[in-house]
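Our collaborator T.R. sent over the components below with a one-line note: 'Predict the complex.' Nothing else. No constraints on interfaces, no templates requested, no preferences about which chain binds where. So this is a plain run: every listed entity goes in together, and whatever single assembly comes back becomes the starting point for the next discussion.
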Amino acid sequence: MKLVWKAFSLCKEGNREEENEDAIYPHLVNGSSLIADQFSCAMADGATTSSFSKLWANLLVKESSLSRAASVDFNQAINAARASWKAALPDKELPWPTAIKVRQGAFATLMWFHIWQKNGVYPLNTLPPDHGWTANAVGDTCLFQVVKGKFVSTFPFTQAKDFSNTPDLISTNIAYTRSRAGSISGKWQRGDHFLIATDALSEWMIRKLESGTLTWALVSENLTSLVRFQTWIRYLRRQSLIKNDDTSLICLTVDV
Amino acid sequence: MYSAEISRMNPTCFLFLVDHSTSMQNPIMGIAGNPKKSEFVADALNKVIQSLVVSASKDMEIRKYYQVGVIGYGFEVKTALGGELANSDLVWIDEIYENPLRIEDRVKKESDGVGGFIEVSTKFPVWVDAVSRGQTPMCAALNKAHEILATWVEEHPQSYPPTVINLTDGEANDGDARVPAELIKSLATEDGNCTILTVHSSSNELSRQIVFPMDVKDLPDHFSRVMFEVSSPLTPKMRATSEELMGTSLEEGAHGLVYNADIAGIVQALEIGTRPANIQL
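Returned assembly:
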């Protein structure tokens, strides 16, 4: 199958771009075409209130994406990310507030997405053998499937009222992880688009879906370049249509 | 209202007023062997400031999410912060972190994550010491708070409004505290009016603790009714935190007063007043 990859991000207004705690994996050039029997990608949203959550979000997307390629269990991948996070913390003695925050752990959402044309190495006994996709999610980073130019499904949230300031999160401290990953799977056909977005944009899109005003044309016209995407998000923020938060989007198009 | 995100662009402000009157040297709840009220309040205040520092901590820095002031009132009315901070009415939280009076080594119990507890040695920074000398010039302290916050709200029109927490064991002896309290409560940002919480510590083990009363008639005497009127209704977030900590829901209109607070009451009231629940994911 041939996939076309686009990914965009814009940090919260008032923050520096290096403080953007949304994470995307893999890191590909926008517009890249990928020829593969299967492909994994992921997005995570690090929690502002915890420390080293940007690091945590980046490790989660990397380990989860790579795990499927290597047929590793999803939870094992998260445990591998936990070990990497601990190993990556500064060696020197931490200031006392930082040490307390590290003990409390870092937190992030995670959306992991896997798509295949033919059965791959992953045990897919309960999933469609061909032309299938699956996603695992913890928290409010959402997946949207667009079929024949229409939004047909959203996951894990389906209603704008599902969003809150206290989404489920994965912690570096296993004792504080509040929930298990939800999962979904389905079939794809040529021309489908899969969008993954962090909560600010996801909430707006689901609200527009609820009012029947979200069209593929409205979204896609803002995905022609990073500048276009960022201009769109700044406009939505200025109009108070989305909250001021790090905002990211992946658009994966199946081009067969 | 009361929904503005706390950020470096729009920080908020916590102003603590601490009764330094001579009666604060009596044991809390009047029970011999209990810590002195002044010592317990100072300890609780240091823990709250520590929590604010931790909540503003991000990776290796302390973000300027809050400005904090501590005004002591007793033989004098002035900032109770010492050392480098002694000349400032309001201090950014990162400067607070950098300038404790001292850091003590303490041991505390923490969850081991599997149902038990472990003892963890911890650093305990001290910013305020216990003081108990003089009268109770609460009106002067509230007037000073008004003066500080009038400037603050002008400079931060879009911020979550300031929270004033008054820790006392007695009544004002320099006038009617309701007058300056009304001036403070009339100050506002676009997100709401300044709020005042009153934590009145108990002097008698037999006195009944009254937590966040709904109606002035719930209070037993003139003095406690004045305290009720000095205090603001709790904000929705404070009510939610209160429900989480105490397990009982509070209706709109519950006032930010804990009267005859016992040890747990003082600690809970401070957490309810200061928990920065509005830093968004």
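Summary for T.R.: The two ends of chain A are 4 Å apart (CA to CA).
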